[in-house]
Amino acid sequence: MIVKTCNRYQNNQIKNLIMDVLSEHGFEYDPEKDYDLEDIKQYYLNDGSVFYTGIVDGKIIGTGAVKRIDNDRCEIKRIYIKKGFRNKGYGTKLFDETLEFAKKHYKTATIKTDVALRKAVNLYLKKGFVITHLDTENKIVYLRKYFH
Question: 87 by DSSP, 3-state: which?
């Protein structure tokens, strides 16, 4: 897999991949949560953030992003791998790329994810993140990692 920063022409491909993965897990498009997918370049590529694509045989099979919160903090987001490409190390590779970017540019990274995504949560814990909050009402796990 080749990891590249996305370009503006990939917006629809990326959105479709992410929405397909979300749909597999019973989630639908939510304008409050998914507005960043409408213009990835504007949301991620103009302020010290980054959006990566994982490419196999010329096709996008995964994504990963780092969103700047402020000069010291960021959020790692949008770690998704297309069905059929999972459990082959691609998700870990994309996550490692986002983690490396975050470590280079920020002091702290946060992640929030659905509690049902246990494999993802276990990966984040394995990579040194700690759970800072569990929102049982909304079924969200909040994690954090300090770099410096």
Answer: coil
Model-level pTM?
Answer: 0.92
Residue carrying structure tokens 């949008």? 78
Give residue 94's pLDDT.
96
Apex 28 CA angle, 59 and 30, nearest 5: 100
Give the Cα separation of 71 and 62 in Å (integer).
Answer: 27
List domains and CATH numbers for the chain. Answer: 2-107 (3.40.630.30)
Q: Which residues contact 61 (CB under 8 A, 6 or more apart)?
A: 1, 17, 54, 55, 81, 82, 85, 90
* Burial track 66-86 (b if 16+ CB lie within 10 A, e otherwise): bbbeeeeebbbbbbbbbeebe
Token pair recorded at residue 110: 């946060």
For residue range 63-100, list pLDDT tens digits in order.
999 999 999 999 999 999 999 999 999 999 999 999 99
If residue 127 lies in a helix (H) or strand (E), which one and from where to where? none
Tell me how long the chain is.
148
* Both tokens assigned to 89: 């190390």
